[in-house]
Specification:
The protein is α/β, with parallel strands linked by helices. It folds into 2 domains: about 100 residues, no CATH class; about 55 residues. The protein contains 5 helices and 17 strands. The strands form 5 sheets. Strands 1, 5, 9, 13, 14 and 15 form a 6-stranded parallel β-sheet that branches. A 3-stranded parallel β-sheet has the order 2-6-10, with no helix packed on it. It has a 3-stranded parallel β-sheet with strand order 3-7-11, with no helix packed on it. The longest helix has 9 residues. The two termini are about 25 Å apart.
């Protein structure tokens, strides 16, 4: 599915960082904002997970608060949950009605997710689709589609490290020693690193940090 939410959510009941009430099949999603309800069924990711619903390969990091049925990942769950996690440190939640609670260090470690079957860039065991990538030790997994153009080196936002890579390929084309096709980020690709690529790069400067 491949979806994300980063803002905070509040309401009366069945409130989640991404989904309030779920009865569908959802995979490869995450939420990072807080969720709060005045009564019950509130989770960092899903508030109420109904029978017949299936959740896999998802995570949350935000806090959840309510009067009852409150969980780090799920508030109340009657459906299937697999290979999904929440951050016990950032959320302050030790319990969830489904999923596995991990420390921030574990949540920012690639093998935590690849060992659970998540499809990451640079490995083929879990599939060829390259759904996720991570900058270990500094950030949580990112959906590849959400990584801004110009974030070449490590998916942690477009920074000076990426600029160094970009500058090293300036005005290069195929066949040149400093050619890097990853730096050809203008649409459509024109096989030269020039002002069109710089415009895209500057437009994404510091995005994602």
């Amino acid at each position: 599915m491949g979806c994300r939410a980063v803002g905070s959510v509040s309401g009366h009941a069945k409130i989640g960082g991404l989904i309030g009430g779920n009865f569908a099949r959802v995979s490869n999603c995450y939420s990072m904002g807080s969720a709060s309800a005045t009564v019950d069924d509130v989770g960092g990711w899903v508030g109420y997970h109904e029978t017949g619903g299936e959740i896999s390969k998802c995570f949350s990091t935000g806090q959840a608060s309510g009067s009852s049925f409150v969980g780090g990942l799920l508030g109340e769950s009657w459906g299937v949950v697999s290979d999904s996690f929440w951050d016990v440190n950032s959320s302050g939640m030790d319990t969830s009605d489904g999923g596995t609670g991990l420390t921030t260090v574990e949540m920012q470690t690639r093998s935590t997710f690849t060992d659970a079957g998540w499809d990451f860039v640079g490995e083929l065991i879990n599939g060829p689709n390259d759904i996720w990538d991570i900058c270990e030790g500094t950030n949580y997994p990112k959906l590849v589609w959400s990584i801004p153009a110009g974030d070449f080196v490590c998916p942690d936002g477009v920074t000076l490290v990426d600029y160094s890579c970009f500058a090293g390929s300036w005005y290069a084309g195929p066949g040149d020693g400093n050619w890097d096709p990853n730096c050809d980020i203008s649409e459509p690709n024109d096989n030269v690193i020039d002002g069109l690529d710089l415009k895209v790069f500057v437009g994404n400067w510091l995005e994602g940090i």
